């Protein structure tokens, strides 16, 4: 027989009851919420894994680069078809043919055809120096190649009379933008890591002299001596650059007064 303990509460007699713990109310709520989340996850995944295995960031970037390269090749093929159709004889095409002939004359200087000639190649690379050995007042920014460094070399080579240019494995023209994110280069939808290689076609002596005379390039070379940034200049006696295949529309240009 169960033993009952009695106490007097407001004049009434009855068994003493311990107050219910707050967990008695919280547990059902948590269980209900968890069940709802499981249901949403099952509906969203439709049987697939919502958390696939971790992919290496390098592989993601490489996949993106391959996709952009494939699309660029598709653009080149379509442009060839457009050019071929534009050159076909058709009623009233005399003016079109004349205009096309004029455009063909500008194609080489615009970078829209492949070219062959002598080339000066410049390679810029991050320093491999131990940060703990940096001189007083230096910081980690000194050890990496920046957008301004790549742009300095590009500008110096154009100023030195370059007739055409390659940056990494892409042909660039006067409207190509050089952008860096961290220590990676973003060029026409593709991402590159150092060393950054700029190749310019033209008179090798004039191109080299332009690099020597440019103050921004000279500033970069000062850091080459101070902290070991990479800077290598070579001459190629003969090289071929492919035609530029990117967009040529200007979106933000304006006339400088």
What does this structure look like?
The chain has a domain at 115-246: Alpha-Beta Plaits (2-Layer Sandwich). It has six helices and ten strands; from the N terminus they run ββαααβαββββββααβ. The protein has helices at residues 23-45, 57-87, 94-110, 147-159, 204-213, 215-227, and strands at residues 6-9, 12-15, 115-125, 164-167, 170-172, 179-181, 184-187, 190-192, 196-201, 230-241. The protein has a five-stranded antiparallel beta sheet, covered by helices on one side. The longest helix has 31 residues, at 57-87. The model is unreliable at 1-18 and 48-54 (pLDDT under 50).
Q: Report the total helices.
A: 6
Largest sheet: 5 strands, antiparallel
Which structural category fits the helices and strands? alpha+beta
Strand content: 15-25%
* Largest beta sheet: strand ordering: 5-4-9-3-10
Mean pLDDT: 75
| SSE string | EEHHHEHEEEEEEHHE
Strand runs, count: 10
Identify the CATH homologous superfamily of one domain: Protein of unknown function DUF881
Q: Can you tell me the CATH class of one domain?
A: Alpha Beta
Overall outline: elongated
The proportion of residues forming helix, as a percent range, comes to 40-55%
Low-pLDDT segments, ≥5 res: 1-18, 48-54
Q: Mind telling me the C-alpha Rg?
A: 34 Å
Named at the architecture level, the CATH assignment of one domain is 2-Layer Sandwich
- CATH topology-level name of one domain: Alpha-Beta Plaits
Spatial gap, N to C terminus: 106 Å
Organism: Flexivirga aerilata
Protein name: DUF881 domain-containing protein
Family: Belongs to the UPF0749 family.
Keywords: Membrane, Transmembrane, Transmembrane helix
């Amino acid at each position: 027989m169960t033993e009952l303990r009695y106490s007097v509460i407001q004049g009434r007699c009855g068994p003493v009851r311990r107050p219910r713990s707050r967990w008695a109310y919280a547990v059902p709520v948590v269980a209900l919420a968890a069940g709802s989340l499981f249901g949403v996850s099952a509906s969203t995944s439709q049987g697939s894994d919502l958390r696939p295995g971790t992919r290496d960031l390098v592989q993601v970037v490489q996949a993106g680069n391959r996709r952009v390269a494939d699309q660029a090749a598709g653009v080149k093929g379509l442009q060839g078809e457009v050019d071929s159709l534009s050159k076909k004889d058709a009623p009233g095409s005399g003016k079109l043919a004349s205009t096309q002939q004029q455009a063909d004359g500008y194609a080489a200087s615009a970078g829209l055809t492949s070219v062959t000639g002598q080339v000066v190649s410049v390679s810029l690379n991050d320093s491999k120096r131990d940060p703990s050995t940096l001189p007083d007042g230096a910081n980690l920014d000194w050890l990496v190649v920046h957008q301004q460094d790549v742009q300095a070399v590009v500008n110096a080579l154009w100023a030195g009379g370059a007739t055409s240019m390659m940056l990494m494995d892409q042909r660039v023209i006067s409207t190509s933008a050089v952008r860096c994110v961290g220590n990676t280069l973003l060029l026409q939808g593709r991402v590159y890591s150092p060393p950054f290689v700029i190749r310019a076609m033209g008179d090798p002596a004039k191109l080299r002299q332009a690099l020597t005379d440019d103050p921004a390039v000279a500033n970069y070379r000062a850091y080459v001596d101070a902290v070991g940034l990479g800077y290598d200049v070579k001459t190629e006696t003969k090289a071929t650059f492919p035609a530029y295949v990117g967009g040529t529309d200007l979106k933000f240009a304006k006339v400088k007064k």
